[in-house]
Task: inverse folding
């Protein structure tokens, strides 16, 4: 992309200073909350997973919220990341934090390979990614690849277990994903993506190389999921292929992101914290009602807050301002 | 204005939609600084010609060059960057972006960046920079299409039915705007049904009928041409 120092996009979005502060807050608040939270609530693994889900929900936010492409098969990158990082740890004794980065690169590489899926639209794209991820799962878990991937028996990373560092890495990943969303939202890149989402042919006549810009968003989302899978594998320490290639991962990440509100910075974070907490609370106390209650929550949301919590929040704040303006 | 150097050359262009020839062997040439009217009854292929030149449809046959550079079947953003741009019969703004941001998208992806406020001034939208799209009138949305085109520093702009639905005051405003573009060296192909407006804006016309070019010359000659008269009186008129 050309250099654009002189292009002033702050006209609409507020001052330059504000543009740096609000992403910093959006990333710092979860960091502090997780750092403090672990002392108040001792289930560190649950908090680790929550941080991982924040990253996944932000990844969905970037690809769906800014391009309109909804990948049901998003879990594929998660699984690829878990395996790539796990294997470099086991086979080459790569330190876990570096392995997490390698997992992200592996996710992005697979994203690049799956690029032709963007020829599909809407539901076909969603299902196409699902099929691709199932295919990757079938390959990795295949017994004939046992010498490389350990086939259906999964990976055992117990030798690398280090709960504190893994937790810290999960928090850092959540913060990184939030910063990635902030970047996409307030940059020229994000503006371009929104234009493509609104009308891709118009965008191309505005000089935008549409497939390339979409590809960048896709790579970022894939890398985030790859890293998320890596942290998951590391912190879980023993996993089977079906645990990291689990369509439920995509479903939850999508629901969390939609619930909070896609296209926003805070939405997916808050959506994940609230719903994942409910998910665990109901799942633990009343497992038999879990599906029912969770399903009802989602239906109510879709009916009454289709733009997620963020949309609801905007609605309330505009109401309040108009009421105040009237009273003045 | 002297029009000598050939800018855009369209040769034997044919566009087919599942067997139907919406454009049938159309050839025309546009010169630097020229404003050419593209007229014809509803469904004669005017918008299809714009869409084909601008890369939305791949032609079945034919050849399109811009200053000798082959752009046939090129991708839309390559065509836009090469210097051809357009407006839409039904404006297609980026609905989630403000007026300013709409133009910024083009500006970001342009080689020679011009100032956005300057462009908005050229299309009389300077006061609406921060407006969301819903606040724009139809005429303003059409001018926003123009602004986005201008931001890419085009050599040619296809203007698809800019005048329809405008008030007389707005028509004059738009006609002046187009005259200004020409003075800045931009050639225009103006798709239009309103003859009065065309008369103010173009110096020659190209007439399409059922996908075929049937006339090329001055507007006055076109209006007295037997075949052109027959086509217009026979077909649907002024939608
Ligand atoms: N994408 C498409 N698929 C199939 N047929 C199309 C498509 N676009 C245009 N056509 C057909 O091609 C013919 C020419 O349409 P076009 O829109 O180019 O006409 P036009 O001259 O711009 O008409 P108008 O004055 O009404 O805008 C019409 O019969 C139309 O139905
Ligand atoms: Mg038309």
Result:
């Amino acid at each position: 992309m050309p250099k654009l120092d002189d292009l002033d996009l702050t006209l609409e979005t507020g001052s330059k200073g504000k543009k740096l502060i609000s992403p910093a807050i959006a990333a710092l608040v979860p960091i502090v909350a997780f750092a403090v939270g672990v002392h108040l609530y001792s289930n560190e693994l649950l908090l680790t997973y929550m941080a991982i889900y924040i990253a996944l929900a932000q990844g969905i936010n970037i690809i769906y919220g800014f391009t309109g492409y909804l990948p049901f098969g998003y879990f594929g990158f998660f699984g690829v990341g878990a395996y790539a990082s796990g294997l470099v740890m086991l086979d080459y004794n790569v330190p876990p934090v570096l392995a997490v980065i390698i997992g992200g690169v592996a996710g992005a590489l697979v994203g690049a390979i799956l690029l032709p899926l963007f020829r599909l639209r809407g539901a076909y794209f969603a299902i196409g990614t699902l099929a691709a991820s199932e295919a990757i799962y079938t390959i990795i878990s295949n017994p004939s690849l046992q010498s490389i991937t350990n086939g259906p028996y999964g990976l055992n990373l117990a030798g690398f277990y280090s709960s504190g560092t893994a937790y810290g890495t999960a928090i850092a990943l959540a913060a990184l994903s939030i910063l990635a969303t902030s970047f996409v939202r307030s940059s020229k890149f994000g503006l371009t993506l929104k234009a493509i989402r609104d009308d891709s042919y118009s965008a191309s006549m505005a000089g935008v190389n549409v497939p390339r810009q979409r590809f960048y968003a896709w790579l970022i989302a894939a890398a985030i999921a790859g890293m998320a899978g890596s942290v998951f594998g590391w912190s879980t320490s023993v996993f089977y292929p079906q645990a990291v290639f689990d369509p439920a991962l995509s479903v939850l990440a999508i629901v969390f992101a939609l619930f909070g509100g896609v296209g926003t910075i805070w939405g997916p974070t808050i959506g994940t914290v609230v719903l994942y907490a409910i998910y665990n609370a109901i799942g633990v106390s009343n497992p038999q009602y879990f599906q029912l209650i969770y399903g009802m929550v989602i239906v109510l949301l879709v009916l009454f807050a289709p733009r997620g919590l963020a949309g609801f929040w905007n609605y309330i704040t505009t109401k309040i301002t108009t009421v105040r303006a009237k009273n003045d | 204005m002297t029009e000598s150097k050939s800018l855009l050359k369209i040769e034997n262009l044919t566009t087919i939609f599942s067997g139907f020839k919406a454009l049938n062997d159309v050839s025309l040439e546009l010169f630097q600084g020229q404003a050419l009217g593209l007229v014809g009854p509803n469904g004669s292929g005017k918008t299809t010609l714009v869409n084909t030149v601008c890369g939305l449809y791949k032609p079945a046959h034919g050849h399109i060059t811009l200053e000798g550079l082959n752009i046939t079947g090129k991708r839309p953003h390559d065509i836009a960057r090469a210097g051809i741009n357009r407006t839409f019969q039904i404006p297609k703004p980026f609905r989630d972006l403000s007026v300013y941001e709409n133009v910024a998208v083009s500006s970001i992806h342009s080689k020679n960046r011009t100032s956005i406020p300057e462009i908005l001034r050229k299309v009389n939208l300077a006061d609406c920079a921060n407006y969301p799209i819903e606040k724009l009138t139809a005429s303003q949305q059409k001018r926003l299409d123009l602004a986005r085109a201008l931001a890419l520093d085009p050599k040619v702009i296809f203007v698809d039915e800019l005048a329809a639905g405008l008030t007389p005051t707005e028509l004059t405003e738009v006609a002046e705007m187009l005259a200004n573009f020409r003075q800045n060296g931009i050639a225009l192909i103006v798709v239009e049904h309103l003859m009065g407006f065309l008369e103010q804006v173009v110096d020659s016309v190209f007439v399409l009928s059922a996908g075929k070019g049937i006339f090329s010359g001055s507007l006055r000659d076109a209006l007295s041409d037997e075949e052109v008269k027959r086509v217009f009186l026979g077909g649907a008129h002024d939608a």
User: Anything to note?
Assistant: The pocket of adenosine-5'-triphosphate (ligand 1) is lined by residues B 17, 22, 40, 42-48, 89, 239 (CB under 6 Å). The first helix of chain B runs from residue 46 to 53. Chain B is about 35% helix and 25% strand.
